[in-house]
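thought: fold this chain, then report.
action: predict
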Amino acid sequence: MLNGAPMNEWLNVQPFWGVLGISLFMLFLGPVEEFGWRGFFLPLMQRVMTPAMAGLIIGLLWAVWHIPAFFLDGTPHTAWSMMPFIVGVTSVGVIMAVVYNKTKGSLLFAILIHWQLNIAFWPEAQPWENYLNLALACLLLWVHRDVMFSRGKGLTEVVPS
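observation:
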């Protein structure tokens, strides 16, 4: 059992073509956001604060950005718990700041992480998943504390080459 469901039901493999279509669509949706969040906003914020603080603020703004979906009929968000979602997305903002800085500003990694968060192969935004994101963010902050808690060590070039 995982999250109250038998393991064979854990992977949501509904009609293959539907999952594939949604996954391909999300491959294009995520990059659009990443050019703004990580390609533009994160480097600018790291000019005036630590990468950890920039990632935390962007993560929180990113979570707030998605809150309207909790009130729109037909979105998956209506079935999710809002507070764990906010914790999880804020945590992913911190994770993405670590990844962005440790990959020398690669938007490809940010895009791929965003994409895998959006694809429909497994249940989304379960409270346990969001708390795992928080644990991972804390671990990455600890491991990379030399960069993440130091002003001036984060990348500041907007959409680096």
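thought: worth noting. The first helix runs from residue 7 to 10.
final: tokens above.
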